[in-house]
Design brief:
- The protein is α+β, with helices and mostly antiparallel strands and 505 residues long.
- The protein has three domains: 125 residues, no CATH class; 106 residues, Phosphorylase Kinase, domain 1 (2-Layer Sandwich), CATH 3.30.200; 232 residues, Transferase(Phosphotransferase) domain 1 (Transferase(Phosphotransferase), domain 1, Orthogonal Bundle), CATH 1.10.510.10.
- It has a five-stranded antiparallel sheet, with helices on both faces. Strands 1-6-7-8 form a four-stranded antiparallel sheet. Strands 2-3-4-5 form a four-stranded antiparallel sheet, with no helix packed on it.
- The chain starts with 5 loop residues before the first helix and ends with a strand.
- Its EC number is 2.7.11.1.
- It is found in: Cell membrane.
- Pfam families: PK_Tyr_Ser-Thr (PF07714).
């Protein structure tokens, strides 16, 4: 059974406690003219608590007290005692009633010293008692809700999907963070805390109670990332540990809500700086070169050095996050797939990713492999060098993407014209030219012609290694981009994208 909402619990508790003094077992009510005497009790509506006089003495001289106790639990389980220091000795003279001032008063009419009122139990005392019991019930409710959520995520994490058996690891600790903690950390997902948004939902900045800064990825309920993709991302990031991969701190499943909690990276994503005319100058060439090499090392870990062979399938500038030292970290593993054993490629009927970054064989045939990520890396590399998006419209009219533009300039020996003007003064033309060359090797049409990431890392780290000559690249362009001026062989895909083979000029 689902736990009751907090406001319902508080309402029920208050209703029960404020009404039980008026609901005596005999049908009478506790009113100023109808006091409660020894031998009578009043029971709460739900039968849990009782209010009245009681005695713990078995001797001939009994002492009587006023208190609240659990009605259905053996005597002695008292919640509250009013007159512990001033017991009543004569039961015939003791009464409990409301006064005209709305105080609950215990009176002993035969006690001359105390006259009429021995003890006043004011409303603040009763209110304090209510608060304590409410807090206890809320704690029970939250505990039940957490247990339910943990059951939910355990069910999700041990689900049987195409890769669930391969991914399931009973020794893996899944860090779970409650929805309440996340709501408090993000100020209820305030727009002022939003770091960005994508196809699968929004990302918010937050601060946990211990001061830890976090980034919360809140998947939209109507997004294409369902339980399978969510499960993939949690398990993969929990298993993978590398300085160039984003670190997962926890996750949460709460009803329809699915949330991932990452380490907070203050410089946000690469695209936020690279494609912002006012901020791109902060990325000088040495910094960009280190970002390129860092992404390559992270990709090498995914493809080769980790215990799992991971194909990311959505490598792009917005999925590269930058920490305080501008070190890159690959993020967003919702679309990632695991290859086992000697598996080299896989086919899918569901093509996912970002157009422009996806390889030709993946878009047209649904075939993906490590070489698909290599293609995406090549596009990213060219974007970092040029400071332009894959489909930048400000390029010369003859070119509909930076791949076409880079190929043309490289063939003509004018690669310096491809370099972002904001870094020309800080760059090494030899390094930028070499990076353009490596990028063109990565975006070749044939997957077999593209280098492995291990070779790419070597090319970047050692400038003395000679590079092979790239073949004519293939690139994708939406129909409305236009391709005037380029001789082309075109094949239409199912998603209205065109594949173009460029002829060298």
């Amino acid at each position: 059974m689902d736990p009751l909402p907090l406001h319902t619990i508080i309402w029920l508790v208050c209703w029960s406690f404020w009404l039980f003094p008026f609901c005596a077992s005999s049908g009478s009510r506790l009113l100023p003219d109808k006091p409660l005497s020894v031998g009578s009790t009043i029971t709460s509506d739900d039968g849990t608590f009782a209010l009245g006089f009681f005695s713990l003495s078995s001797s001939s001289t009994k002492h009587y007290y006023v208190g609240i106790w659990y009605k259905n639990i053996p005597e002695g389980n008292f919640v509250w005692v009013a007159n512990r220091a001033m017991p009543i000795t004569d039961p015939s003279s003791a009464t409990l009633a409301f006064t005209s001032g709305s105080n609950l008063a215990l009176s002993d009419t035969k006690d001359k010293k105390q006259k009429s009122v021995v003890l006043k139990i004011t409303l603040p005392v009763v209110s304090s008692l209510l608060i304590v019991i409410c807090a206890w019930l809320v704690w029970i409710c939250n505990l039940g809700g957490k247990q339910k959520n943990k059951k939910n995520w355990k069910k999700v994490m041990s689900g049987t999907s195409s890769t669930s058996v391969e991914l399931h690891d009973g020794n893996l600790k899944y860090p779970f963070i409650s929805f309440k903690e996340i709501v408090l950390a993000t100020n209820n997902f305030s727009n002022s805390n939003m770091l960005g948004h994508g196809g699968f939902g929004n990302v918010y900045k937050g601060t946990l109670e211990d001061g830890t800064k976090i980034a919360v990825k809140r998947l939209s309920k109507g997004s294409g990332q369902g339980v399978m993709e969510f499960r993939n991302e949690v398990i993969l990031i929990a298993k993978l540990q590398h300085q160039n991969l984003v670190r997962l701190l926890g996750f949460c499943i709460h009803g329809d809500e699915k949330l991932l909690i990452y380490e907070y990276l203050p410089n946000k994503s690469l695209d936020a700086m690279l494609f912002d005319a006012t901020r791109k100058s902060m990325l000088d060439w040495p910094m960009r070169f280190e970002i390129i090499k860092g992404v390559a090392r992270g990709l090498l870990y995914l493809h080769q050095d980790s215990r799992l062979k991971i194909i990311h399938r959505d490598l792009k500038a917005s999925n590269i996050l930058l920490d305080a030292e501008m070190s890159p970290k690959i993020s967003d593993f919702g679309m990632a797939r695991i290859f086992g054993g000697n598996q080299q490629q896989e086919n899918t009927n569901r093509v996912v990713g970002t157009y422009g970054y996806m390889s030709p064989e993946y878009v047209l045939k649904g075939v993906f492999s490590v070489k698909s990520d290599v293609y995406s890396f090549g596009v990213l590399l060219l974007e970092i060098v040029s400071g332009s998006k894959i489909s930048s419209v400000h390029l010369k009219a003859d070119f509909s993407s930076i791949i076409a533009y880079a190929w043309s300039l490289w063939k003509d020996g004018n690669t310096q014209d491809f370099v972002d003007s904001s870094i020309v003064g800080s760059c090494s033309l030899n390094e930028t030219s070499r990076c353009i060359h490596i990028g063109l090797l990565c975006v070749q049409g044939s997957p077999n012609a593209r280098p492995l990431v291990s070779s790419i890392v070597s090319f970047l780290d050692n400038g003395d290694i000679s590079l092979p000559t790239p073949k004519e690249p293939m690139y994708f362009a939406e129909d409305n981009y236009g391709t005037d001026g380029a001789a082309e062989n075109t094949a239409k895909s199912a998603n209205n994208m065109s594949i173009t083979v460029l002829e060298g000029r």
